[in-house]
Design goal:
CATH superfamily of the domain at 229-552: Endonuclease/exonuclease/phosphatase
Order of helices and strands: EEHHHHHHEHEHEEEEEHEHHHEEEH
Number of strands: 13
InterPro entries: Endo/exonu/phosph_ase_sf (IPR036691), INPP5E (IPR042478), IPPc (IPR000300)
CATH class of the domain at 229-552: Alpha Beta
CATH topology of the domain at 229-552: Deoxyribonuclease I, Chain A
Organism: Anabas testudineus (Climbing perch)
Shape: globular
Region (Disordered): 24-124
Membrane topology: Peripheral membrane protein
CATH architecture of the domain at 229-552: 4-Layer Sandwich
Helix content: 10-25%
Mean pLDDT: 77
Strand content: 15-25%
Radius of gyration: 40 Å
Biased composition (Polar residues): 47-57, 109-120
Length: 576
């Protein structure tokens, strides 16, 4: 039999098979040829429990014992126990998969590495965080910086919902608060909010109009696309003088270099348009490129009105309606009059009117009559619901919409002879045009309230846009010697004060194919949430026009590259 050990303290050694072993160190169980005999004296700590012996008198290595004592187990069976412990910890502790677990070891979060594979954990496992995710999954689920407004907002104290950008407010109310799982789910759907099949089955189309929340055009969806609830509009008006030849490049008209960003909507009104209206629309599409689609286009004789929208915003536009009015005595002559287009975007209704009033320096009264006929006869809206019927009147179409833009060739002149006007222009310093504007017929009539009631105009800081000799910056040199005037204007009105903010109001002096200069305006317009009772346009746009415009754009780019390539490859030989 082996040596006898009795009365040992925890800091003492025992002798087994001729070797000194510290009680604080783990050791292997004795083999069949070895045994342990207890002394009759009481021990402070018993090394072997009689209940741990099997029928043959051997020590059972799998009998549980207090964790403060060394574990007695055979080396050939310790591997399976280690695997069990390790798998349990992988499930119940916060670990980093990029640490030692990939190389065979593992570490508990917030603690040091285990000293050996046979060591027992001391004390309870560390408490799990409420939100847990491994280090390698964090970069996978990291939301792109361009989509920070889609980040998960979780504030326990405020009790806010996990998702701010849900198309249905009840979407994830039954889902757990594990943001790691939410991030993993959202990463599979890009920036789109996940939708459960149950919500797709149960959702009513008219739910938004009844409950006021969860609407496709409601506040949550609006804030998702427009956090500040303002949309950008680019308005352009141009009297083309009926010229067949269009400018070689329309970039200066729609995409000026002094603008930092393109706008969400482009609305272009033309008076005395070119004979080929389809060609004009294709050229607009070619200029704006694949980011934009033609939402709608309407005409009244040679009056053209075209609306382009950003491709990803057409789903929030209602059906589009239009109407026309002629101000000629003979209705078949459609050179003077108006064409209007209306649609609702989210919960805000828009009306765009382009018009051409009676010409002539002294025909102010006739132009006022043109205005009165248009506001009374323009039959809009037709089927779209009025967003605020209590503020609408049947005698004025402009009162039936939230935001109204009216632009065109109004033909109002400066009430001074040409010599005096040119002298004022020569004395003008900078962009202060007030000495000219004080003689403007339209400004005078608006102050008196006889025309464009409730409309506003941004300060004019550009020279008169009429009348030029074609191809140059010289005002009329014909025998008529027409007085330079501000005939081309952009006006606006809103049901709510300060809903429309003017960003830019100027003329486009680089386009000289007409005796008029185009006038452009950039506006930020306040948006309000809508309800699902608004008939949506279902994303419709002119697909054929879009494809032709993009085809021309690609062809133009290929020709440009080919020209640059041939120019760079050509060589010039000189003989000295």
């Amino acid at each position: 039999t082996g040596p006898t050990t009795a009365g040992l303290r925890h800091d003492e050694k025992m002798t087994m098979n001729g070797e000194d072993i510290n009680l604080h160190q783990s050791f292997e169980a004795p083999g069949k040829g070895d045994s342990i005999v207890n002394d009759s004296r009481p021990c402070k700590t018993s090394l072997v429990d009689t209940n741990s012996l099997n029928a043959q008198g051997e020590i059972n290595p799998f009998q549980p014992r207090p964790p403060s004592l060394p574990r007695l187990s055979k080396s050939n069976k310790s591997g399976s126990v280690e695997k069990t412990v390790r798998s349990r910890r992988l499930r119940n502790s916060q670990e980093s998969l990029s640490d030692q677990a990939e190389t065979g070891g593992f570490a508990l979060s917030g603690s040091t590495n285990l000293r050996s594979q046979d060591s027992n954990p001391v004390g309870p496992l560390p408490a799990l965080e409420k939100t847990f995710v491994s280090a390698t999954l964090r970069p996978v689920n990291r939301i792109d910086k361009d989509c920070l407004d889609y980040a998960v907002l979780h504030r326990e104290n405020l009790g806010e919902r996990l998702h701010r950008n849900l198309s249905d407010s009840r979407l994830l109310e039954n889902m757990g608060s594990d943001s790691a799982s939410v991030n993993s789910l959202r990463s599979n759907y890009s920036v789109l909010s996940p939708i459960r099949p149950q919500d797709v089955r149960n959702r009513s189309f008219l739910e938004g109009s009844v409950l006021g929340s969860g609407a496709l055009l409601g506040a949550e969806e609006l804030d998702r696309y427009f956090p500040d609830r303002r949309v950008g509009f680019y308005i352009a008006t141009w009297n083309m003088q009926g010229e067949k030849g269009l400018p070689a490049n329309l970039d200066d008209l729609l995409l000026p270099t002094d603008s930092e960003f393109a706008q969400d909507f482009y609305v272009i009104g033309v008076q005395e348009g070119c004979p080929d209206r389809k060609e004009w629309e294709i050229r607009l599409q070619e200029t704006l490129g694949p980011y934009y689609v033609m939402l709608y286009a309407a005409s009244h004789g040679v009056l053209y009105l075209t609306v382009f929208a950003r491709r990803d915003l057409i789903w929030f536009c209602s059906e589009v309606e239009h109407a026309t009015v002629t101000t000629r005595i003979i209705s078949q002559i459609k050179t003077k009059g108006a064409v209007g287009i209306t649609f609702t975007f989210f919960g805000t209704s828009f009306l765009f009117i382009t018009s051409h009033f009676t010409s002539g320096d002294a025909k102010v009264y006739e132009r006022i009559l043109d205005y009165n006929k248009i506001v009374e006869a323009l039959a809009l809206p037709k089927g779209l619901p009025d967003t605020n019927p209590y503020r609408s009147t049947s005698s004025d179409v402009t009162t039936r919409f939230d935001q109204v833009f009216w632009f065109g060739d109004f033909n109002f002149r400066l009430s001074k002879d040409r010599v005096e006007v040119e002298n004022v222009m020569n004395r003008t310093v900078g962009d202060d045009m007030s000495p000219l504007v004080e003689h403007d017929q339209l400004s005078k009539e608006m102050k008196e309230g006889s025309i464009f009631k409730g409309f506003q105009e941004a300060p004019i800081r550009f020279f008169p846009t009429y009348k030029f000799d074609i191809g140059c910056d010289i005002y009329d040199t014909t025998s008529k010697q027409r007085t330079p005037s501000y005939t081309d204007r952009i006006l606006f009105r809103s049901r709510q004060a300060d809903d429309i903010k003017v960003i830019k109001y100027t003329s486009c002096s680089s386009i000289k194919t007409s005796d008029h200069r185009p006038v452009i305006g950039v506006f930020l317009v306040k948006l309000r949430p809508g309800r699902d009772n608004i008939p949506l346009g279902a994303g419709q746009f002119d697909r054929g026009l879009y494809l032709e415009g993009i085809r021309r754009r690609i062809t133009r780019e290929l020709k440009r590259r080919e020209a640059m390539k041939s120019q760079s490859s050509s060589t010039i030989c000189t003989i000295s």
